[in-house]
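Aim 2 progress update. The chain analyzed this quarter is reproduced below.
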Amino acid sequence: MAKQRLDTLGAPRDGTRHLEGDTPPLFSARYWQEALDSARQLRMLVLAALLVAVRVAIGALAVPIPFFDNKRLTFGYSFNAFGAFLYGPVLAPLTGLCTDLIGFFLHPTGGFFPGYTLSAAVGSAIYALVLYRRRVTVLRLAVAKILVNLIVNIGLNSLWSAMLLSKGYLFYLVQGITKNFILLPLEVFVMVLFFRAMMPLARQMGLAPQQWENEVRLW
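Predicted structure tokens:
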């Protein structure tokens, strides 16, 4: 079967759009070819640049969590996840990298360390691998956030903190586990609200399949 070419919206030229049942397996050549085609589309590049700008602009925005000292809820991850859902695992890591680098040079805090840039790219890639070409559900959003928290926020970032600061890896690991699992339910709740708000707009712009409902189902 000949590979269908994609139009500027990431859909096959025959006008159909990918539903989850039509999504190629993650490790198939077709999946990565479609992700590469998406990354080359002008509309996706413009969208990615816009979301990078938004994430840099709101990077310092955080809401304190009552009853938990030094715990703050940020919002850039929702834009990150939504963008990764739309343009896929080829472009998503590049947006994570650009967001971190631009954010550092515009709002520097301490010295530059490439480990955190790697973390930003890996986090964006995880969101894309879980969400791209998949029907959005509360369970899928929760899985994506749990993986990012475990691999990036807890695993990698604890390692970078141990390398840069005076205390050992175990200290930052325990600290990261506590912080991330306290914030997890609220973070997932915010993601669900964000996707529910943005899905109608994405459908109107042709960025998400018209066959998918606006509601984010439980599973």
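The longest helix spans residues 169-204. The mean pLDDT is 85. These observations will guide the mutagenesis experiments scheduled for the next reporting period.
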